[in-house]
# Entry
Amino acid sequence: MKTIGVLTSGGDSPGMNAAIRAVVRTGLDKHLRVMGIERGFTGLMDGEIFQMERFNVADIIQRGGTVLRTSRSAEFMTEEGQNKAYNILKAYGIEGLIVIGGDGTFRGALALAKYGIPIIGLPGTIDNDLAYTDYTIGFDTCVNTVLDAINKIRDTATSHERVSVVEVMGRHCGDIALFSGIAGGAECILVPEIGYTKEDVCRKILEGKQRGKRHNLIVIAEGAGGTVDLVKYIQEVTGLEARATILGYIQRGGSPSAMDRLMASKMGYKAVDLLLKGKSSRLIGIKHNKIIDEDVQEAMSLVKRIDEKLYEIADVLSY
Ligand code: F6P
# Structure
């Protein structure tokens, strides 16, 4: 193998740059030509490709986002789009491809792998919604960003003796809410994987008030739905002032944490190593603190579940 390509696709996440850097520097160390593909699968279909050198990845390990930029491409999900992409890969002599992204990216990788191109995937998403890996690149930074916001919101909630409902991202996965909720000492954590009723939430708030709690912090995952309605309901039923904060895109940006940089560096190195060993259609992940790789199809067939024990702990500690 002489030439490999690297792209980032789907939602950006902090640590993607550290992963790109690791791929490029490991590739160069192994005397490979490393081609950077811009704007994900869209840029691949359009041939937005350039040869990467060491200087292209200098000074990026600490930056959020992705220097290769990213996109979500509907065209690439069609056979025509995939043919286009394959022909571009051939035209540039790219013999192995490393993709960094989430499940949409991996579905794209699977489609391309059918053409016989060796593909390795790195999990880059803030959502931590991939079952085959304990962590995804960007999740740790995201949780810390949410935590910082929760700490600030708590100051106001305490001062005004209010109920604060903080909505976080995560698509259909409750991990961002669960991890940041526990670390932030939330009174209530609402996730899509575990049902809740608005009545239960209000009961918890009122019981807490009776015990002398001066504020209530509720962290709700976007996938659990109905944040604004919940706030209205809480005000009506408890008679307490309640406010909603929808954190939005601040959760996706920012300088990656040490953990995300380290994980991205190890995974980027491993991706190049696997390609050179002739491996194909593998996803890299982390299980019990060890970097692992798993067949794409198998990894994608696993169903992500919430850590119920952790949820139980959150419930006990929030009393
Ligand atoms: O997958 C990352 C994520 O930020 C999700 O948490 C969120 O639901 C989604 O992307 C938002 O997507 P977009 O960037 O297309 O608005």
In short: The chain is about 45% helix and 20% strand. Residues 11, 102, 125-127, 169-171, 222, 252 surround 6-O-phosphono-beta-D-fructofuranose (CB under 6 Å). The radius of gyration is 22 Å.
